[in-house]
Specification:
It is built from 6 helices and 12 strands. It is of the alpha+beta class and 260 residues long. The protein has a single domain, classed as Deoxyribonuclease I, Chain A (4-Layer Sandwich), CATH 3.60.10. The strands form 2 sheets. The chain has a 6-stranded mixed beta sheet with strand order 3-4-2-1-12-11. Strands 5-6-7-8-10-9 form a 6-stranded mixed beta sheet. The N and C termini lie close together (5 Å). The relative contact order is 0.17.
C-alpha cells in the first residue's frame, strides 16, 4: 500500500484555488499539508475542497499564517497548536493520524530580521517543537513532519551556495542548528535521503522573475520523517509546475510516497 504525502505553502488558499484544485485532480495525493492559507475559518473554502474528494482540518486567521491538512480519508485525533506556557499558535501547527502515521504540519515563523524579536521567537519555536515531539510522540513510531520550516539546512539549499553573503533569518548558524537539534530527536530529511544533489529548491522570490530558469531559489519546505517511516520512503520530488503557472504561490509543492 502506498501513501503519498505533499506539502505546499499556497500563500493564500482563496487566491490559489485555481491552481490547487486541478493539481489535486492530477496528482491525487493521499494527504496534502498546506501553509499560509491566510483565511479566517469561516472564509476557508472547505466545501470546494470536499467537492474535490478531500476531508480537511484547518485553522487560520485573516491575512496571515494558517495551516490545513487535506486527506482522502478522515484524519483522526486532530490537534492544533502548542499546550506549553507560550502562545498556542494554532494557525501555525496542526497534527493528526492517518493509517497509524502521525502527520505534523507547521508554518514556522520566518523571523523578519536577525535583530527583530520575531527571530528570537523563531528560535524558541524550534525549542518548543522539540519539546512537543518529546512529550507527545516517539521517534520509534511512524511520524512525518512537513511544512514551510523557513530554514535552508545546508549551503546547497540556497542558490548562492559558498559565496560571501550576510546571514539571513532563514540561513545562518543559529537557525540551522536550531532545526538540526529538533531533527536530533529522530528525524530524517527524506528529500536528501533520495536526492543529494544541489540545485533543487522549493521557494522562488516573486521579485526574481528569472529565478526558476536561473536556479535562484531556496529549499525551505521540508519533509522530515522518523527512521521507521523514512526507510519506507520513495519517489520524493518538487513539482515546479504550479510555481510556473498563472498567479502562482512563491512556493512549490513537495511530494513523497511511502510504501506501507
Amino acid at each position: 500500500m502506498a501513501l503519498t504525502v505533499a506539502t505546499w505553502n499556497v500563500n493564500s488558499i482563496r487566491a490559489r484555488m485555481h491552481a490547487l484544485l486541478p493539481w489535486l485532480a492530477e496528482h491525487e495525493p493521499d494527504v496534502v499539508c498546506l501553509q499560509e492559507t491566510k483565511a479566517q475559518d469561516h472564509d476557508f473554502p472547505a466545501d470546494r475542497i470536499a467537492a474535490a474528494g478531500y476531508h480537511v482540518a484547518f485553522r487560520g486567521e485573516k491575512s496571515y499564517n494558517g495551516v490545513a491538512i487535506l486527506s482522502k480519508e478522515p484524519i483522526e485525533n486532530v490537534r492544533f497548536g502548542f499546550d506549553d506556557d507560550g502562545p498556542a499558535d494554532e494557525a501555525r501547527l496542526v497534527h493528526g493520524e492517518l493509517k497509524g502515521i502521525t502527520i505534523l504540519n507547521t508554518y514556522v515563523p520566518q523571523g523578519r530580521e536577525m535583530d527583530h524579536p520575531m527571530f528570537a521567537y523563531k528560535l524558541q519555536w524550534f525549542d518548543r517543537i522539540r519539546a512537543l515531539l518529546e512529550d507527545r510522540f516517539s521517534a520509534e513510531e511512524p511520524l512525518v513532519w512537513v511544512g514551510d520550516l523557513n530554514v535552508a539546512l545546508t549551503e546547497i539549499d540556497v542558490w548562492w551556495g559558498g559565496q560571501n553573503r550576510p546571514d539571513h533569518v532563514c540561513f545562518n548558524p543559529q537557525v540551522t542548528e536550531a532545526l538540526e537539534l529538533v531533527m536530533g530527536w529522530g528525524l530524517v530529511d527524506v528529500f536528501r535521503k533520495h536526492i543529494p544533489d544541489p540545485g533543487h529548491y522549493t521557494y522562488y522570490d516573486y521579485r526574481t522573475l528569472a529565478g526558476i530558469s536561473e536556479g535562484k531559489g531556496w529549499r525551505i519546505d521540508h519533509i522530515l520523517a522518523t527512521t521507521p517511516l523514512a526507510e519506507r520512503s520513495e519517489d520524493v520530488r518538487i513539482d515546479l509546475t504550479p510555481r510556473t503557472g498563472p498567479k502562482p504561490s512563491d512556493h512549490a509543492p513537495v511530494l513523497v510516497c511511502f510504501d506501507l
